[in-house]
Amino acid sequence: MRVRLVVSAVIVACIWLALASPVRAQHDVTVISGRVLGADGAPLKVGHVHLSAERSFRRQAEAPIAADGRFAIATTLTGALFLTVTGVDHYSVDVPLVVEAPAAIGLDVRLQHYAYTDSLERITAIGDFNQFAFGTGRPLVRQPDGRYTLEIATTADTLAYELMGLEKSGNRSINGTQADRYAYDEGGDYRSVIRARNGRATIVFDPAALVQAAGEVSVTFREPNAPVARVYASFREWTRQRQVFMDSGLAVRARHDSLRYDWKPVIAERTAALARERDPLLRQLLLLQLWEAESFSRTFDTAVARQVVREVPPSSRWWAFMEFGGPSSMWLPIYVATGRPVTPQWRSDTASTLAALAYLDRVASEHPDATVQAQALASGIPIARRAGDVPRSNDYFVRLDRGYPDSPEIGYLRSQYSPNRVIQVGRQIPAFRFVSLEDSTVAYTRESMLGRTYLLDFWATWCGPCREEMQYLHPAHDSLAADGVEFLSVSLDNRAEDVRRYRQGDWRMPWLHAFAAGGFQHPEVRRLEIWGIPTSVLIGPDGKILAVDPRGEHTVSAIREALHGARAP
User: Fold this and answer.
1) Exposed, middle or buried: residue 448 (CB in 10 Å: 0-12, 13-18, 19+)?
2) Which residues pair with 488 in a beta bridge?
3) Which of 116, 296, 502, 531 is the right S-S partner for 461, CB 3.0 to 4.6 Å?
4) pTM, to two decimals
5) Dihedral sign for Cα atoms in the order 517, 520, 522, 525
């Protein structure tokens, strides 16, 4: 199973998405059909196609892939849709579709085979026996014949399981080499299901059965000049260019060098494509891609910003796609369109802030997708709060809470803005219990930490903003130790081993560590209403909260200011 993650352009945190609303329905039907093959060009063992509203991920329809690879799936929905193609032993592929009117869409897909790890010593199994919880898998034991096994006691007649640590990234749970049948795991991969006998089921993993197949995923539309195909081609190329940029950044960090990525050819190509394009929908797409390229390169062309503001309306279909950060991302082009330079203080400009909020108001009332409406309100809350307009911020929160209670952002926003939130300065920290990363017989609790001033920090190695905080946390720890401040980092990683490996690198994190098995679903994490990371809470010796989220370059000063306020008579 893979986990989808979105980092909001306004809320700087890693937030898990899982809920949504449907796009607009029509009486007529769109039929998507074609053929899906594996990396070797042969039909898959088992495969499915799934259709959902793009930003929601809530499945609207599902169809199996036939034994010869053919499939067909129908929907009455139009708008921003998302076709996900999955298959046993293969990575899933996501195909964004913009369907303006009912149509017949034909496309053929070849999936990419899993890439496997070179080291088999850290493979664990999750399954029915632990509710498929990441971080609590059981290790497989190597046998003399080279296979790995794990015996599980069960009262059921079957056992479903997946393997962790087998896929190369280490962050994905996938099917094993042994199965009597397969079941989709609702996250892009499959569970192996085996029979149990006499109250026992034995998982057998055979490395010799792994297939190391080369090749890349391919999606071919049968009508390449159709608007839906041209949209996908533009998305696919843009995704490739962004990935090259991201990979360059990772390589630079590994070399401890500075990033020198040349966006000029990409900007020139998008500009030329925009000049040729006449379709309004595709022009919006190209403009948003061009603006994103300029943002990455920090060029901020005023003319491009004005085009974006002029041609991308609040009802644009593209706000239903995550790639552009949502409608709140219009705040920056609205500011740049004024012709003023971008400085670190640009968000303090009153006129552009009010214009951005007016744009979000229109998105909330005009966009056809309820999920985008909710996102506009959610992103408007911190913008209005930053501008000092607390009544408007509260109004957005009430409208979101009442009208969109299943919004993915509502949990995080309740934890930040609800008057009843549990993490607030001046309140007692709720009871908690987290097991030590170094010693599972030790637990850190509210009671065990009484008498100490400590920073309770929630993070994960997979969270980019969390890793960025390391450059501030380490000097903060070094300078605040003399003030008696302890640090307790609680990892929401998939595996405790991920944290141990991370601490062997550049950032040693020489303080207390705990591990929350299950991540955001850990009962104590939910009790504390931790919906996004990084999140940190400064707690005094009496268990009272002194500060929330002292982060970045102001970490030390924020903590010292909170400590000074707590000690003042």
Assistant:
1) exposed
2) 456, 512
3) 502
4) 0.70
5) positive
Prior bond to 391 cis, omega within 30? no
Residue carrying structure tokens 């299901």: 193
Report the phi/psi class of residue 499: left, alpha or beta, with left for phi > 0 and alpha for psi in -120 to 50. Answer: alpha
d(CA 175, CA 127): 11
* pLDDT for 19: 27
- Edge-to-edge strands, sheet with 141-142: 141-142, 148-153, 200-205
How far apart are alpha carbons 524 and 422 in whole angstroms? 12
* Share of the chain residues as helix, strand and coil, in percent rounded to the nearest 5: 35, 25, 40
547: which residues sit within 8 A by CB, 6+ positions away? 425, 537, 538, 558, 559, 561, 562
Tokens 């990371």 correspond to what residue?
A: 533
Q: How far apart, in whole angstroms, are the C-alpha atoms of residue 54 and residue 71?
A: 20
Could you tell me which of 100, 104, 107 has the C-alpha nearest to residue 79?
100
Closest Cα partner for 7 from 464, 419, 467? 464
Where do the domains of the chain lie, and which CATH numbers do they carry?
20-112 (2.60.40.10), 124-209 (no CATH), 433-567 (3.40.30.10)
Separation between Cα atoms, residue 404 and residue 63, nearest integer Å: 29
Residue 1 has a pLDDT of: 63
Task: Judge contact between 161 and 126, C-beta under 8 A.
Answer: yes
Rounded distance between C-alpha atoms, residue 208 and residue 206, angstroms: 5
In tens, the pLDDT along 186-220 reads 989 999 999 999 999 999 999 999 998 878 999 99
CB 518 within 8 A of CB 435: no
Low-confidence ranges of the chain (pLDDT < 70): 1-27, 54-59, 249-260, 322-323, 565-569
DSSP-derived pairing of the beta strands 218-221 and 190-195 = unpaired
Q: For strand 181-184 and strand 190-195, is the pairing parallel, antiparallel, or unpaired?
A: antiparallel
